[in-house]
Amino acid sequence: MIRVLLADDQTLVRAGFRTILDGEPGLRVVAEAADGLEAVRLAGAERPDVVLMDVRMPHLDGLEATRRIAADPGLSRTRIVILTTFELDEYVYGALRAGASGFLLKDAEPAELIHCVRVVARGEALLAPSVTRRLIAEVASRAVPPQPPPEAAALTAREAEIADLIAAGLSNEEIAGRLGISHATAKTHAGRILGKLGLRDRAQLVVWAYESGRVRPGWLG
């Protein structure tokens, strides 16, 4: 059972999401929060698998609530998806840095919502191509002469290769095809990479790889 926390100050939005999620086998909404502080408190109490987090909420905004949840060692398995009314450029980079695993438009179709929850619950990132492009552009605009990240020394040559491919946006299946390995092997490598680097998920790996200069825009072709 995938346990979900809804954090949005609009009652109707929460009600609509609850109806969709509770009607789907294997998904259950365990709590609702109307502001950021309540979201942080309920996340600690309920330890959900996924938090659907609005950005603009009273008392504490969604980005700071995301940062606090992501920083809690007891919630290391909780994944956070930022809810937006439209793709807001200024939130993309900050939300991923804060610990979000992806983004979802509030007017998304029910099937998209269900897919989103299942994807991030598996520990994968949910980044639409348009979001990824803007993330890369934002990181590139902040670029400084890259320094070899010290954490990278813990990776084997194959793990470093796979880390770069993940950062470039390839799925485990695509990585398996490119490198001639099985899907299970690619998934195992991905898990080990995240563990060695101390990262929550693939979204965090994207930020790490670009900030460290390991991956640059357009390098893969």
UniProtKB/TrEMBL annotation:
<feature type="domain" description="HTH luxR-type">
    <location>
        <begin position="148"/>
        <end position="213"/>
    </location>
</feature>
<keyword id="KW-0597">Phosphoprotein</keyword>
<feature type="modified residue" description="4-aspartylphosphate">
    <location>
        <position position="54"/>
    </location>
</feature>
<dbReference type="InterPro" id="IPR058245">
    <property type="entry name" value="NreC/VraR/RcsB-like_REC"/>
</dbReference>
<dbReference type="InterPro" id="IPR016032">
    <property type="entry name" value="Sig_transdc_resp-reg_C-effctor"/>
</dbReference>
<dbReference type="GO" id="GO:0003677">
    <property type="term" value="F:DNA binding"/>
</dbReference>
<dbReference type="GO" id="GO:0000160">
    <property type="term" value="P:phosphorelay signal transduction system"/>
</dbReference>
<feature type="domain" description="Response regulatory">
    <location>
        <begin position="3"/>
        <end position="121"/>
    </location>
</feature>
<keyword id="KW-0804">Transcription</keyword>
<dbReference type="InterPro" id="IPR001789">
    <property type="entry name" value="Sig_transdc_resp-reg_receiver"/>
</dbReference>
<keyword id="KW-0238">DNA-binding</keyword>
<dbReference type="InterPro" id="IPR000792">
    <property type="entry name" value="Tscrpt_reg_LuxR_C"/>
</dbReference>
<dbReference type="GO" id="GO:0006355">
    <property type="term" value="P:regulation of DNA-templated transcription"/>
</dbReference>
<protein>
    <submittedName>
        <fullName>Response regulator transcription factor</fullName>
    </submittedName>
</protein>
<dbReference type="InterPro" id="IPR011006">
    <property type="entry name" value="CheY-like_superfamily"/>
</dbReference>
<keyword id="KW-0805">Transcription regulation</keyword>
<dbReference type="Pfam" id="PF00196">
    <property type="entry name" value="GerE"/>
</dbReference>
<dbReference type="InterPro" id="IPR039420">
    <property type="entry name" value="WalR-like"/>
</dbReference>
<dbReference type="Pfam" id="PF00072">
    <property type="entry name" value="Response_reg"/>
</dbReference>
